[in-house]
Amino acid sequence: METYESLLAAVSAEEGSPVVDPATGETFAHAPVSTTDDLERAIEAARAAQPAWAALGDEGRRAALTAAADEVEANAEALALIIAREQGKPLSGPGARFEAGAVVAWLRATIATELEPEVVVDDGAAKATVYYRPIGLVGAIGPWNWPAMIATWQFAPALRMGNAVVMKPSEYTPLSVLATAHLVNRHLPEGLLTVVAGDRELGEAISSHPAFGKVTFTGSARTGAAIMRASADNLTRLTLELGGNDPGIVLPDVDPKAIAEGLFWGAFINTGQTCAALKRLYVHDDVYDDVVRELVAVAGAMPMGPGSDEQNVLGPLTTEQQYGVVDRLVEDAKARGGRVLLGGEPDRDAPGWFYPATLVDCLDDDADLVREEQFGPALPILRYSDIDDAIERANRGEAGLGASVWSADAGRAREVASRIEAGSVWINSHGTIHPMAPFGGVKGSGYGLEFGVEGLKAMGVPQVIHG
């Protein structure tokens, strides 16, 4: 069994880059720093390992990944401690233990997913069957908000389909991904899965490198566009999950008390640092005051503090930069006449990057807090009286990752959901992803699908055999 200390892939200060505890703002470890030469060596090793891995066959690969899932499960507590310290999410609630468990769950779901050859023509005169072959080498560039879980979303299906993988985690949270890969690699051929920890330059090198047949990325739309440009000359296949500004629409038939906790977690899971979190809430006039009252009550009762404290369910923002974004948006909302219902006044003298759970109303749709993705614990609440108007407002903007509709009438909710421009729409919940349900965005939230059968297909090359 690994301990926190033995699993932490830290190096000396002279060798590595500082990793900061967001609860204190202080450096607690140093992560290794890979160079472009290290990347070239990783590519060479991956190319050497991949053919035998592909030749192992689907059952052999599934067996190896099952052993890897068992390994992570046996060491999940040590992994969770690293996640909590590095990323900031609390151990309790939907936090660091939840994320470590999700690594195991997504590995097992990826292993269990069946992808059989598909006969698309068989009319007696002709037969055509679709197969999915390995791409070869997949590059994965990950974010800092759910570092270990999203890394698993990237490498698990790629490996299952017979590929080799080179991953670059965020420079803010490399230790969680290094620890995850360390556990998984105990059951994989050497060189098949490599983590190269470094800065943006390393990500750019992966994006533009002709060795990669596929690059998968989760992060900002700006970086996604840069990856597209860098990879264009190589015609690299891409999966891009580029964040969102998810709306939620509350219909007038709801029970405000019954939905309040679901609204809270939809918006504030991981202290709001989730791509498919609820980021704009439209509430019908008839239930507005009651919904606001119940939501304030739930949010106000949620303890926030260091992730190592078992009582906390909300942690700090992961980076000082993101703290600044949330602070700017809330201050702008105040200047525009927004009414702060809860929070909005961080303790600027306290250590770490804690921003209190904040609810703001009396804003127009052109307020920055409504138009921009806050990626933090500040939710704007907006009134509407006409559902067509609410849908039109919900569809404004470039993002289209997720959305939700809240109603006691499932049929009515589905009708409203069908008119929202988003890759996923939830009814009476928000952001509750499932490993078998395809996940991806539309509009400025990127393209490509992850999870389930579609996620496996995205990590393969289709080949049609006639006859």
Strand order of the main beta sheet, please? 12-13-14-11-10-15-16
Rg to the nearest angstrom?
23 Å
Residue windows where pLDDT falls under 50 for at least 5 positions = none
Broad shape: globular
Structural class: alpha/beta
State the distance separating the first and last CA atoms: 52 Å
Averaged pLDDT, please? 97
**What composes the largest sheet?**
7 strands, mixed
Beta-strand fraction estimate = 15-25%
CATH H level, superfamily name of the largest domain: Aldehyde Dehydrogenase, Chain A, domain 1
- CATH class (first level) name of the largest domain: Alpha Beta
CATH architecture descriptor text of the largest domain: 3-Layer(aba) Sandwich
Number of domains: 2
The CATH topology of the largest domain is Aldehyde Dehydrogenase, Chain A, domain 1
Percentage of residues in helical conformation: 25-40%
Number of strands: 18
Number of helices: 16
